[in-house]
Design brief:
mainly beta, Porin
Length: 181
């Protein structure tokens, strides 16, 4: 239920962005791009029982070819959530590799589907002490919208992330706004 609400909010935000950017000029795909993003990180599943909605910051490295609808993006990121009881926080570092499939459009707005695999370092911090800080395998899948501007692209995206663990899995949905140069 909560994931459905998050997906609905992300879809509305993408539709709003698509309407706002409908007159933007079409930009060429760059063979190499670098970017940053940030936004909300919404816990789902068991993770939502212990933590509140948090935030995320990310760095991106993109590789693409103008003649192909698919490109690749490497991400490094940090998600942080405050504990519902206070006094502690949970966090996740991530190193992921993603495939990005652009959905062709006649306007400058470009919706896309993204998905990939990666390593996630989940942990809990309280009073300056970090516990359970270990690397785990995970995956992500989501969608977004690119809005080309003069010399760079902005984007908004939402992804479902699942991190596999020994005692269970952690799931969350980062909703981010970013720029790629």
């Amino acid at each position: 239920m909560r994931f459905t609400k998050v997906l609905a909010i992300a879809t509305m935000a993408a539709a709003t962005a698509a309407t706002a950017g409908a007159q933007a000029p079409v930009s060429a795909v760059k063979p190499f791009s670098i970017g940053v993003s940030g936004g909300a990180s919404i816990p789902t599943g068991d993770l939502s029982n212990g933590v509140n909605t948090g935030w995320n910051l990310n760095g991106h490295l993109g590789l693409g070819a103008p003649t192909l609808p698919i490109s690749f993006r490497g991400d490094v990121g940090y998600n942080n959530w405050g504990a519902k009881g206070g006094g502690a926080s949970a966090h996740a570092w991530n190193l992921t590799g993603n495939a990005v499939f652009d959905i062709p459009q006649p306007t400058g707005v470009s919706p896309y589907i993204i998905g990939g695999l990666g390593a996630y370092k989940m942990g809990v911090s309280s009073g300056g002490v970090t516990a359970n800080d270990s690397w785990r395998f995970g995956f992500n899948v989501g969608a977004g919208v690119k809005l080309p501007l003069s010399g760079f692209n902005t984007f908004i995206e939402a992804k479902y992330v699942q991190v596999n663990g020994d005692g269970g899995n952690a799931q969350f949905v980062p909703i981010t706004f970013g720029v790629m140069f």
